[in-house]
Design a protein that fits this description.
single chain, about 250 residues, alpha+beta, Jelly Rolls
Amino acid sequence: DGVTEVLAHRSDDLRDKFVEIPCSEDYDSHKRFEGCTPRRCGRGVTDAVITREEAERIRRIAERGLSLGGSDGGASILDLHSGALSLGKHFVNLYRYFGDKIQDIFTEEDFALYRDVRQRIQQRIAQVFGISSSAMYLTKPTFFSRMNSTGAKTTHDEYWHPHVDKVTYGSFDYTSLLYLSDYSEDFGGGRFVFMDADSNKTVEPRAGRVSFFTSGSENLHRVEKVQWGTRFAITISFTCDPEHGIGDPVLG
């Protein structure tokens, strides 16, 4: 892997750390939206937007939802927007599958917290990149992930391959991850790795930590395989294209 630098240690308490990187050409093959499409690219980490206590509350939402299903392999996802939930080797629609029972699993407070957290992350990204928060739209997929050391059973479980979000999901312009558990305490492995030409830059997850970055190939990345324990996170992504925008999830 060559040289590895740690961009954010788990023990750090970072107000705002930002590294600017030249933008890739990925954005040129998509329609540009003035005042939103990245002209300044880079990656940031902050522990000052979401509290650990809020992260724990959000993790409990993920745990309750994922307890209804879960993949046979090491990676399970729950998408509150589309209702997608890993179940065995497939996905089911949580809302169709469980119907009114959903009201016993999630509360209005859960969805209000989710919305509040999403808005704060959106505002911070807008602030750091010098764009208007109202020019950004939540986009899909936005999902909880639960990863453990179980071997992969399908390609959906192979979360560790290097990828570029803008290439994988054309709508993504800004990607964020909110970590809901602690590296080296709740799980081993599972660090987030930016793969640069000269070196790798890793982010060690910590509950409440937000890692965010422009979605083009300037931020090629991967996640290390989880060696032990369970790693929870939520991926929340934004687009500049209103046609790819989605609303916040609604209960029932």
